[in-house]
Amino acid sequence: MLKLIHASKIYHDSGVQALRDVNLHVAAGDYVSITGASGSGKSTLMHILGLLDTLSAGQYLLGGADVSCLPPHTLARLRSEQIGFIFQGFRLLPGMTALENVALPLTLQGIPRTERLERAEQALARVGLSERTTHRPDQLSGGQQQRVAIARAVVTKPRVVLADEPTAGLDPEAAEDVLSLLDGLHHAGHTIVLITHDRAAALRAARRLYLESGVLSGG
């Protein structure tokens, strides 16, 4: 599914080496957590896996295809079709309803309106928000906003879901709800990579890895 081979990332403007000879294999259906201190390279790794950034050296295979040197427009298409993102700050559009936010990735893919709204409704039902389809983000709690973000991440039926600190800033009950939803996605067959500083959240994953100064370790 996802494979990094001797992957390194250097930011030449600052001279910072964020990833150092990283080897990672995430199989279809895996649930992997990656933890590490601030500045350890977690965000860089997330951006590489999500096709938001490119490697300085090494290879990245997505679904068996080498995507290391593809042009930006091809990466953007693959990102839209194959990667589902759950961000720490939700990143919902404030002027749109929950339904419209979830349907947005399908709009960008050119899916007909009737189909995308139906799929968005199904995704919201999956995260327990059938009664909140017409609510805007400012009418939802933080936990509900993150559930909308989860619905948006899976509505495109991506190869992999990347969750970047999805429980940060949430109260314990809302955080537990989000982690339970990730558990459910995993049990339903989704491939999940969870990047978190929260050890308790990391322990929910089937495999737990650790980043330190750009070096990845663990089972």
Overview in brief:
With 219 residues, the protein is α/β, with parallel strands linked by helices.
What labels describe this entry?
single chain; 219 residues; alpha/beta; Rossmann fold; 4-stranded antiparallel sheet; 7 helices; globular
Task: Give an overview in words.
- By secondary structure, this protein is of the alpha/beta class.
- It has one domain (2-218): P-loop containing nucleotide triphosphate hydrolases (Rossmann fold), CATH 3.40.50.300.
- Helices cover 35% and strands 26% of the residues.
- It contains 7 helices and 10 strands.
- The chain has helices at residues 42-49, 72-82, 98-108, 113-126, 142-154, 172-187, 199-202, and strands at residues 2-11, 16-26, 31-35, 57-62, 65-66, 83-86, 160-164, 191-195, 207-212, 215-218.
- Strands 6-7-8-3-9-10 form a 6-stranded mixed beta sheet, sandwiched between helices.
- Helix 6 links the parallel strand 7 and strand 8 (191-195).
- Helix 3 packs across helix 4 (113-126), helix 3 packs parallel to helix 5 and helix 4 (113-126) packs across helix 5 (142-154).
- It is globular and about 45 Å long.
- The mean pLDDT is 92.
Helix percentage: 25-40%
* Total beta-strand segments: 10
Mean pLDDT across the residues is 92
Shape: globular
Q: What percentage of amino acids are in beta strands?
A: 25-35%
Q: Provide the CATH architecture.
A: 3-Layer(aba) Sandwich
Instruction: Spell the H/E element sequence.
Output: EEEHEEHEHHHEHEHEE
The secondary structure category is alpha/beta
Helix run count: 7
Uncertain regions spanning at least 5 consecutive residues: none
Radius of gyration, in angstroms, nearest whole number: 17 Å
CATH superfamily: P-loop containing nucleotide triphosphate hydrolases
- The order of strands across the largest sheet is 6-7-8-3-9-10
| Biggest sheet layout | 6 strands, mixed
Estimate nothing, just give the exact number of structural domains: 1
Name of the CATH first level: Alpha Beta
How far the N terminus sits from the C terminus, by CA atoms, comes to 17 Å
CATH topology: Rossmann fold
